[in-house]
Design goal:
Elements (H helix, E strand, L loop, with lengths): L13 H10 L5 H5 L5 E4 L14 E15 L6 E9 L2 E7 L3 H5 L7 E11 L2 E5 L2 E4 H4 L10 E4 L4 H5 L4 H12 L11 H6 L5 H9 L4 H33 L10 H9 L6 H15 L5 E6 L5 H14 L3 E5 L3 H14 L7 E4 L5 H12 L5 E4 L2 H4 L7 E6 L7 H11 L7 E6 L5 H7 L4 E5 L10 E6 L3 H13 L3 E5 L7 H19 L5 E4 L5 H12 L5 E4 L12 E6 L7 H8 L10 E6 L5 H12 L3 H17 L19 H17 L9 H11 L3 H4 L3
Parallel strand pairs: 4-6, 9-14, 9-15, 10-12, 10-13, 11-12, 13-14, 16-21, 17-19, 17-20, 18-19, 20-21
Antiparallel strand pairs: 1-8, 2-3, 2-5, 3-4, 5-6, 5-7
Helix pairs in contact: 8-9, 9-24, 10-12, 11-12, 13-20
This protein binds adenosine-5'-diphosphate and magnesium ion.
Length: 701
């Protein structure tokens, strides 16, 4: 037998069980060893029978005194009863299932270790369906079910039918572990020594059959470390490759127009913006490729920072591309940039769907002829063969909509004649640092950690149906003061049609009845681009008081005069999404409000979430809470998340370990980028074997 042997041939498996095991992805002995316990239960402490307490569980050791198959009145069917005794007393062990099997399983005088919960029947002490080991026969191999820390494995109805409950798994894993000596080490000696990690062989032994808590903890730590380490190694590779083999651009000039733009701003940049800008400038100045994440809460002012970065490119005679996740946002950015750039003689073009052919051709040829300095659009910029003359910087706004793969793809498409443009990725999703490291670990990170001063914190309140009229009165009063309001409807049933219907119905009632005297507009994703733009600009110019919309306005929209964000069925939104929506208000000097309308049937859980929204406006705190509730996969939306699947490590709870793993991985790649050193061979092997499918991202191969 060896680790790669088919599972069928392992002692105690056979064809039927092998089939059940293959169903859950266990083909080989090695796969079985990687089937980790779900949790553990401590059965080390043995008790004397006279010290047992009814209702408690304990391990006892005793001798079989007697047993019988009890054929009972019909109601109960037969049961098997065994009397186990030690020096201090006796208990009945009872099995209702497998009674006939057990009748032949024991011998009087045999010594058993038994674990289970003690009940009282009449005056008799009883343990029903106990776990047990036979002292005489099992002693040499160690106990499987009692007397130690026992591992519990994930199982299912189908598995249990094949006797593959926790007990069944323990029985199979025992002989499989005899091959533990063959498990090749996957971390180099120096890494193991430096972090005093457990060897891989011992790790597998301890994970399945822990000898004590401390060893189990060491084993778990080793597995977590390894998961995080290889993840970081991948990122380190990727970063290294970008730094070393990709020819970047050194933008050396900081010229007059940039200075003029800064001096003309109606506000002073915050310290956070200045710091981020400085980091970006240093990156762009250097001949290597910039790969930077600009992270800042909603409203922290990322757009102007991105624009100043683009100015650096433009003033060095390069073009810049500014990518937004939706057309509405692209259009908004386009107008915002034009406003900022007024009078500076810098040409901005918008690439979008629905443009006239002649118009579009003109734009495309202007871009190719470098008549255009800054191109704004959606990912269509790179999908539809927009050709640049000299692309120097790509800015991607609201990154979480794109994901890691798309980022790699954009990079690849943006390269012109072996020159890689700099990349600036912006996200308003306040990703906790640990998670940012895990996902964007190949990017440098700049954080704008403050909002422009003079903003008042948004007041948030949850309201139920009862309060609806009051809420409407409040909106009317604010509108009377010249403020504007967003009214957002959620996605229902994941179906866009319903989503639309809710918003449209709401719009009809609000515009024709409730707010007949106010100007109400409707915005949703199914409208034509021109229509959307028309509605947005009417809202922006205060020709509308209330904008009813679907979640299309979730990201980026900026209308400082709007002070109310009313969210219908707030319980259906994730926390981060609520935070993004809320970020649409509170952008001006006036007090802003966020009202979360909660359906009457909202669960306890969702009420808890809205309470978090009422309590804090700190995006990072909200994201952490959201992660705790939903887990990383859902947090980012499953498919494009790029969040790695981890078996044991937890990106939030194990952040200290993640940091250590990261430092170690980056240090190793720094010194030995190709893992050529003899000591690093084990890691190279594992890396190529398990991560080869992801290597095209990192460019190793
Ligand atoms: P976000 O980071 O959410 O993309 P924006 O870039 O849209 O934020 O900026 C939000 C608002 O704050 C805009 O109206 C912008 O003009 C304004 N703003 C940006 N920087 C500052 C600043 N330093 N002081 C005051 N207002 C600012
Ligand atoms: Mg923005």
């Amino acid at each position: 037998m060896h680790l790669e042997s088919e599972i069928q041939y392992l002692q105690g498996v056979g064809p039927k069980r092998a089939e059940a095991l293959r169903e859950i992805g266990i083909d080989s002995v090695w796969d079985l060893l990687n089937y980790f316990p779900r949790r553990y239960i401590d059965r080390r402490h043995t008790a004397r029978i006279k010290d047992l307490r009814v209702g408690e569980s304990a391990t006892i050791v005793g001798t079989v005194e007697n047993f019988e198959l009890v054929m009972n009145r019909k109601r109960y069917g037969s049961r098997f009863r065994l009397i186990l005794a030690d020096d201090t007393g006796h208990v009945n062990l009872v099995w209702f299932q497998g009674a006939r099997y057990y009748e032949r399983a024991f011998e009087v005088g045999e010594v058993l270790a038994v674990y289970g919960k003690l009940d009282l029947y009449g005056r008799e002490l009883q343990i029903t369906h106990p776990e047990f080991d036979r002292i005489e026969t099992d002693e040499r191999e160690g106990f499987l079910n009692t007397g130690s820390i026992i591992s519990l494995y994930p199982s299912s109805e189908a598995l249990r039918k094949k006797w593959l409950d926790s007990r069944g798994f323990r029985k199979l894993i025992k002989p499989a572990l005899e091959l533990a000596g063959q498990i090749p080490e996957t971390l180099s000696d120096d890494v193991i020594a430096r972090h005093s990690l457990m060897s891989i062989k011992d790790t597998y032994r301890q994970i399945h059959f822990p000898s004590d808590e401390a060893s189990l903890e060491k084993a778990r730590e080793r597995i977590k470390f390894e998961e995080l380490f290889y993840l970081q190694l991948l990122l380190a590779f990727r970063k290294r490759r970008i730094a070393s083999t990709e020819q970047g651009i050194a933008f050396e000039k900081v010229a007059n127009k940039t200075r003029e733009l800064i001096s003309k701003l109606p506000f002073e940049l915050t310290d956070g913006q200045k710091k981020a800008l400085k980091e970006i400038r240093e990156d762009m100045h250097a001949p290597r490729c910039m790969n930077r994440l600009l992270q800042g809460d909603v409203g922290s002012g990322k757009t102007i920072v991105a624009l100043l970065a683009m100015m650096i490119a433009v003033e060095n005679d390069f073009q810049a591309a500014f990518m937004a996740p939706t057309e509405i946002l692209a259009e908004q950015h386009y107008f915002v940039l034009q406003e900022y750039l007024w009078g500076l003689n810098i040409n901005v073009a918008l690439v979008k769907g629905g443009q006239k052919k002649s118009e579009r051709e003109k734009i495309l040829s202007d871009i190719l002829n470098h008549q255009v300095d800054i191109v704004v659009g959606t990912h269509a910029i790179f999908q539809e063969h927009v050709e640049f003359s000299k692309l120097g910087l790509v800015v991607i706004d609201e990154q979480h909509r794109f994901g890691v793969m798309q980022r790699a793809e954009i990079r690849r498409k943006a390269v012109i004649k072996d020159i890689y443009p700099d990349m600036l990725v912006m996200t308003a999703t306040p990703i906790p640092r640990t998670l940012a490291m895990a996902i964007y670990g190949d990017l440098d990170i700049s954080v704008i950690n403050e909002l422009p001063s003079g903003r008042r914190p948004i007041r948030t309140a949850a309201r139920t149906e009862e309060a609806r009229n009051k809420v409407y009165e409040f909106i009317r009063a604010e509108a009377g003061k010249g403020r504007q309001c967003y009214l957002v409807y959620p996605l229902i049933d994941e179906s866009e049609k319903m989503d639309l219907k809710a918003a449209k119905d709401g719009y009809t009632i609000l515009s024709e009845k409730i707010f007949k005297d106010l100007r109400v507009g409707l915005l949703h994703g199914k409208m034509k681009s021109a229509e959307k733009q028309e509605v947005m600009s009417r809202f922006k110019n205060h020709q509308l008081d209330i904008l009813v919309s679907t979640t299309v306005i979730e990201v980026g929209v900026n209308v400082p005069n709007s002070t109310i964000m009313l969210i219908e069925h707030a319980e259906r939104f994730g926390l981060t999404q609520l935070h993004q929506l809320r970020g649409r208000v509170g952008r001006g000097a006036d007090q802003s409000y966020c009202i979360l309308m909660i359906g009457d049937q909202a669960s306890e859980e969702s009420q808890k979430r809205t309470r978090i929204m009422e309590e804090t406006t700190d995006g990072f705190k909200i994201a952490e809470e959201d992660l705790k509730i939903r887990g990383p996969g859902e947090f980012f939306g499953t498919k494009q998340s790029g969040v790695p699947e981890l078996k044991m490590a937890h990106l939030i709870h194990d952040h200290a370990l993640l940091q250590t793993a990261r430092d170690t991985a980056f240090e190793i790649i720094d010194k030995d980028p190709q893992l050529r050193a003899a000591g690093h061979q084990v890691m190279k092997k594992k890396f190529l074997a398990e991560y080869s499918d992801k290597l095209h991202l990192s460019g190793i191969g």
